[in-house]
Amino acid sequence: MDDHRAQVEELLADYRRSREQLASVQRELAAVSGQASSPDGTVTALVGAGGQLKALELSELAYRRHRPEQLAELIVRTVAAAAASAAEDTYKTLSTVLPASTDPAALVAGTADLRPAEYAPDDTETVDLGRQPARRRVDDDEDNEQRESWLDSELIDRRVR
Question: Which Pfam families has this protein been placed in (predicted)?
Fold first, then answer.
């Protein structure tokens, strides 16, 4: 009985350590930020965790040096650079707790355990329905065959047993 109690205590201690490590990583991720300035210094962007824009500063010269469409493009590029900086900090933070073979960028993108064919864009055609295009999957065997989902077939297999 004492052996089991010791095992349970050790498991609980491991759980508490893991939970505290997770909380610490979550705090670090929440504090991630990135900042970038345009090459001419007229635009500065600050983004937070996940690349969310937190602050944008435009100097007085920004309006004089750039036409509106140029300034808009400069803002987009500067915000993207700040987001890339924040993403690098996110990857560094995650890499301290992930197995060495895990790519933090792929994990954040949601593709860590997928092959490129599983997340690459599929064959789709765009159908114009006004302002927002709708996408419809193009299927080579578009016929009237009813396809069973894997879930339905699994449920049927369980009922048969």
Answer: YbaB_DNA_bd
Domain boundaries, the chain: 23-114
CATH code for the structural domain at 23-114: 3.30.1310.10
SS (H, E, C) 93-133: HHHCCCCCCCCHHHHHHCCCCCCHHHHCCCCEEEECCCCCC
- Apex CA 100: angle with CA 94 and CA 104, to 5°? 35
Q: Is the confidence at residue 27, as pLDDT, over 70?
A: yes
How far is residue 151's CA from residue 65's CA, in Å, rounded to a whole number?
60
Pairing outcome for strands 43-47 and 53-58: antiparallel
In SS3 terms, 66-101 reads as CCHHHHHHHHHHHHHHHHHHHHHHHHHHHHCCCCCC
Q: How many residues does the chain have?
A: 161
pLDDT, residue 109, reads 82
What is the model's pTM? 0.62
Question: CB neighbours (10 Å) of residue 48?
Answer: 17
Question: HEC string of 37-51?
Answer: ECCCCCEEEEECHHH
156 secondary structure, DSSP code: H
Distance of CA 149 to the CA centre of its chain: 28
CA 119 centroid distance within chain = 13
